[in-house]
Amino acid sequence: MRPEQHRLVNNSAKPAARLKVGFVLSRSFTLSAFALFVDTLRLASDQQDRSGRVQADWQVIGSTRHLITSSCGVQVAPTSDFVDPTRFDYIVVVGGLLTVENPVDQQTIAFLRQADAKKVPLIGVCTGSFILAAAGLMKRHESCVSWLHYKEFRERFPELAVRSDRLFNLDRQRGSCAGGSSAADMAALLVRKYISRDAERNALEVLQIEKARTPADIQPRRPLYDDYDDARVKAAMITMEQFVDGSMPIEKLAAMVGLSRRQLERIFIEKTGMSPAKAYNRVRMERAKSILAQSKAPLIEVALDVGFENASQFTRTFKRTFGQTPSQHRAAALRAH
Q: Are the CB atoms for 56 and 17 separated by under 8 Å?
């Protein structure tokens, strides 16, 4: 039964579960993301701490009943074979370590494609969006990934839209989230949508979560300029870090945060005391500073990484920014260690 078709058969009958979720766990999946998602459902469905499945139901589905080992070593057993995907309102794919060569088998890929063909929404949790993308299931949909995995997603799937400045995303028939505690935020949104706000509040209170964050909330990472309180400034600077080679035009950067170039410049001057272009240059120099301190990469390689055509131009800009040359900074960092 689909959530929008939910109804009571008669007044004395127990209500059918309003929200049914099937979980697909990858090899070396992230246990915390899975646990937070499923426990949000459990607590929202619960009555008087009895772990009931009154308002929601869920299954861990798989091609076999073999134990699936998480990235921390804890194992989980599937509770259902692959069934007609329309039995579920959502199929949630929980990813994990990206170093695993085949995180799911071909039967699982076929099941996910079948779910897509039958219009069952798919959600990628943590690196689950990588699995959906590899299966060809993220075309025309934007993926939300952790800032930690943004670069690798772009390298693997350069033709797909991706962002890492938000916690999670619900894009028509797709959802994706950065993982960690954002899995609870995404689950809470489904609970609010298909069950009730009271159920959402109950789940979050038991989980000791003050309130659910929204898809518009910024990932709780400390970027280079996290001291600023404007979400648009933070989002712009995170994007600058993602395009640290300087390849992101200011006009496009402004459009990505819903502003014109003039509006972005005005906000940056007001909030940071510098123009977006100057802030972008600072972001690139900070990245170069970090590379110099943590690696033995040749100067020209560092220069190219942050978008300079030659080492001399890079050296002049670095010295103008920090008051010392890249070589002097590297030497000082080595002495400090």
A: yes
Buried b (16+ CB within 10 A) or exposed e, 265-300: bebbeebbeeebeebbbbbbbbbbbebbeeeeeebe
For residue 307, what are the β-bridge partners?
none
Q: Split the chain (337 residues) into runs of 10 and give each run's mean pLDDT.
A: 38 59 97 96 77 85 96 95 96 95 96 97 97 96 88 92 87 90 94 91 89 78 64 88 90 93 95 93 88 85 93 95 92 72
Residues whose CB is less than 8 angstroms from the CB of residue 140 and which lie 6 or more positions away in sequence, other chains included: none
Q: Which long-range contacts (CB under 8 A, 24 or more apart) does 261-268 make?
A: 264/232, 264/236, 267/230, 267/232, 267/233, 268/233, 268/236
Closest CA to 239 of 123, 251, 133: 251
- The whole-angstrom separation of Cα 201 and Cα 133 is 33
DSSP state of 122: E
Which CA distances in Å does 173 have to 182, 331, 333?
A: 19, 52, 49
For the chain, the residue count is 337
> Which amino acid is located at 224 in the chain?
L
**Residue 90's Cα: distance from chain center in Å?**
18
CA distance 111 to 109: 5
Q: How many CB atoms lie within 10 A of CB 207?
A: 14
